[in-house]
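Subject: Dickkopf N-terminal cysteine-rich domain-containing protein structure
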Amino acid sequence: MLGFLKAHNRKLAPALLVALQLVTASPLSFEDDQREALSTGSLYPDELCQKNASCVSGRCSRTWLVFDDSFTYYYFPDTDPARCEHLTAGESGCRTFRDCTLEICKDGVCEPGQTGDRCSINYQCKDLCGLDGRCFKPSKPSNQGAGEPCKASSDCLSNTCESQQDVARPLLTDPSMTAKTVDTICSPSPEGRGCHTTSDCEEGGVCELGVCTVIKDGEP
């Protein structure tokens, strides 16, 4: 197990690896089956389990879903002991977004965030997660400028949506603080691609009439 973690998840923080070592080193011990029978349907995601029926999600699995501080997620197969799986879209019983796989928790149900809902990363929203930490739907297609959130290249004026480090938004659990995530944002537009302002263009380009243009030496 630990060999798999070290070989396939080099991005994990040292503190997370230490935590993983501790939990994987100590197998779960139950006094008897009655102990878990009493908790039928009451164990939350990441809690140790033996039976599907014990979990709020209805799934007790040896595949472990782990999120790091930047909301990047990792799947670890064949972990021991087993844990209750996270809830997926449309499933009820969540307390916070941490009980959901990729969604937010609204009124006890895991579902993609709608316009105005708080978020920390794009995958939590039906459309996009703004840099203000709120889900939103772009006013029109292919309208996101450089440095703005996207899920697909077709969202961007540049037609290029790329993963970037340290995309900053208000922290979901405390909006007065900032969370930095690995998320997708639009790249600057090359010559000939759309723009709102010159800041949407690649270095050396200027925005003229909604198109990035490179001013060559000698041109006004």
